[in-house]
TrEMBL record:
CDD domains on file: CYP64-like
Highest taxon of source: Eukaryota
Entry binding sites for heme: 461
InterPro entries per UniProt: Cyt_P450 (IPR001128), Cyt_P450_CS (IPR017972), Cyt_P450_E_grp-I (IPR002401), Cyt_P450_sf (IPR036396), Cytochrome_P450_fung (IPR050364)
Keyword terms, alphabetized: Heme, Iron, Metal-binding, Monooxygenase, Oxidoreductase, Signal
Protein family: Belongs to the cytochrome P450 family.
Keyword Oxidoreductase: yes
UniProt name for this protein: Cytochrome P450
GO molecular function: heme binding; iron ion binding; monooxygenase activity; oxidoreductase activity, acting on paired donors, with incorporation or reduction of molecular oxygen
Pfam families, alphabetized: p450
Cofactor: heme
Organism phylogeny: Eukaryota, Fungi, Dikarya, Basidiomycota, Agaricomycotina
Length: 531
């Protein structure tokens, strides 16, 4: 003790309980940001005998979470979330080891970069109904995004097609992701029982054991969330009506899903969902040690992780457009130039809307739209403290001691709001990404929000490549066809959107009032085509 280096700096702990009173159940990233400004690249807190470490600079996150990934890729064993609430098998909670590697392999098969082009057709097919739902009930935009994101993953992972916002699987997912993110993981996910595991033996009726009574209810919900869509696929397989999907292809022995990278190029234009899997099913996978349990939980992990993150990102995009009409107009002008214009100029835009919806082939010609997407990720910071990693051995970094078992948070919020990295970081300014080679140059690469907002090292988000395509397509499709602006009251006065962030893990804006409508009659026709 006397010879080891000091802990990283941080707020003074109280005797025994440490810094527990410094933690906030909501928006912990705002407090962690203040610590970063006060204490520098690393902040250390102690909760009873557990260390919490916040890494506040790109150098600190890359040095530790990336370069020392073999030490920093475990996940905390949380008695409350994992054992009592039954989440220990979800990918984001799986300890680093064989099971985590098997799960990530499966996710790579479903959503690795080379596979994504196979879903392009499906995304394009789903984006038009999304726009049409948005136009018919714009105030429910978060419901529509939920349906799009959940629907896309449900179709790809379970072969289930969502037909309404009231879909039972979508409702179940919303309820469970809400419980997980805002109840179980509230305040960083540390409960007294995580500090004193013996508390788990308290009988349910015992005063102060309400956490256990809640855990019983939440665990039952989580199991239902994992099992119901999975059992659905099994029964569809039995009936012979299963759509090809990630789960069905892994479950049907003669059609084990095998991903063969050499076949990517010739299939990239595939435009129907079925071909994402079925055309590649003939070759049985030789290395499949996957069992029912792995498939069940991996499928659920991808599904549950895709919904809130996408809702959050796209809600930030809509908010940014409402608050920055000049950005919307510039992006629309770029799209009009590339897609061609026509029509009557119903909307307030200087032009009258694009002639067709954007496709992935247009992307290279739309640098400003790409800049809007990049800036949305930076400005919105969907998961501001990432998810905690656990350190498996004691470590020393720049003369500071980080104890074994520390929970380590990449403080993405502090990085995305660092004026040393991004001038006027609070300002939504896509132009910052247009400076020549802003992202390609070495210095630019280090600033690219994609290097941060999806987490770090061996636990980095496996959904990044899907998001890169699906969110880009939705953003550009909305820009091409819709005007997004402030709503007006009955006197015609603009209503400023009021936004609150009341979450513990995701930075999801509360629903806000805005006006979303087609840019022109022609845009409306384009949206409604095929309805
Ligand atoms: C804009 C959207 C998204 C953002 C910002 C995002 C961000 C993140 C972050 C910050 C993490 C924690 C990484 C870490 O521990 O270092 C994560 C983990 C994860 N994400 Fe995403 N994500 C998004 C969309 C998705 C989608 C669409 C999927 C599924 C298709 C997905 C699946 C997962 C899974 C399974 C994990 C846990 C990985 C592990 O612990 O090994 N995410 N994500």
């Amino acid at each position: 003790r006397l010879t080891r280096p000091p802990f990283p700096p941080g707020p003074n702990p109280l005797p025994i309980i440490g810094n527990i009173l410094d933690l906030t159940p909501k928006e912990l990233w705002l407090t962690a940001f203040k610590w970063a400004r006060t204490y520098g690249p690393i902040t250390h807190l102690r909760i009873f005998n557990k260390s919490l470490v916040f890494l506040n600079t790109p150098k600190a996150v890359f040095d530790l979470l990336d370069k020392r990934g073999s030490l920093y890729s475990d996940k905390p064993h949380l008695v409350m979330a994992g054992e009592l609430c039954g989440c220990e098998n979800m990918a984001a909670f799986t300890p680093y080891g064989d099971r985590a590697r098997r799960q990530r392999k499966l996710m790579q098969k479903a959503f690795g970069p080379a596979v994504i082009p196979r879903y392009h057709g499906l995304m394009q097919m789903e984006s038009r109904p999304f726009l049409s739902r948005l136009v018919s009930s714009p105030l429910q935009f978060q419901d529509h995004i939920r349906r799009y994101a959940g629907g896309l993953t449900l179709l790809v992972v379970y072969g289930h097609q969502v037909k309404s916002n009231d879909d039972p699987f979508l409702n179940l997912a919303e309820e469970c992701v809400g419980i997980l993110a805002n109840r179980i993981a509230s305040g960083g996910g540390i409960w007294p029982v995580d500090i004193f595991p013996a508390l788990k033996y308290l009988p349910l009726w015992f005063p102060g054991a309400s956490f256990k009574r809640n855990a019983v209810i939440w665990k039952a919900k989580m199991e239902e969330f994992v099992d119901r869509p999975y059992e659905f696929v099994k029964s569809e397989i039995k009936k012979g009506t299963a759509r090809p999907s990630f789960v069905s292809t892994l479950l049907e022995p003669p059609k084990l899903f095998s991903y063969d990278a050499s076949t990517d190029d010739d299939d990239s234009s595939s435009s129907d969902h079925d071909s994402s899997f079925s055309s590649h099913n003939t070759k049985a996978s030789q290395d499949t040690t996957t069992d029912d349990h792995d498939i069940r939980w991996t499928a659920n992990s991808m599904y549950s992780a895709s919904i809130d993150t996408t809702i959050t990102t796209l809600s930030h995009f809509i908010l940014a457009m409402v608050q920055h009409p000049h950005v919307l107009r510039r992006a629309q002008a770029e799209l009009d130039d590339v897609l061609g214009t026509g029509g009557d100029g119903l909307g307030s835009s200087p032009r009258s809307a694009a002639k067709r919806l954007p496709t992935f082939e247009d992307r290279a010609k739309l640098p400003y739209c790409d800049a809007v997407f990049t800036e949305t990720l930076r400005w919105g910071v969907p998961v501001p403290l990432s998810l905690p990693h656990r350190l498996t051995q004691p470590d020393t970094y720049e003369g500071m001691y980080i104890p074994q078992g520390s929970l380590v948070f990449g403080n993405i919020w502090a990085i995305m709001r660092d004026p040393g990295l991004y001038q006027d970081p609070e300002v939504f300014e896509p132009e910052r990404w247009l400076a020549r080679d802003a992202i390609e140059e070495e210095a630019g690469k280090e600033r690219d929000p994609r290097a941060f907002v999806f987490g770090f090292g061996r636990r980095r988000c496996p959904g990044t490549h899907l998001v890169e395509s699906s969110v880009w397509l939705l953003i550009t499709s909305m820009l091409a066809t819709l005007d997004i602006r402030k709503a007006r009251d009955e006197k015609g006065v603009e209503i400023e959107p009021v936004v609150k962030f009341e979450n513990a893990v995701f930075r999801t804006p509360s629903p806000f009032v805005c006006d979303i409508r087609p840019r022109s009659e022609e845009a409306l026709r384009l949206i409604m085509e095929g309805e």
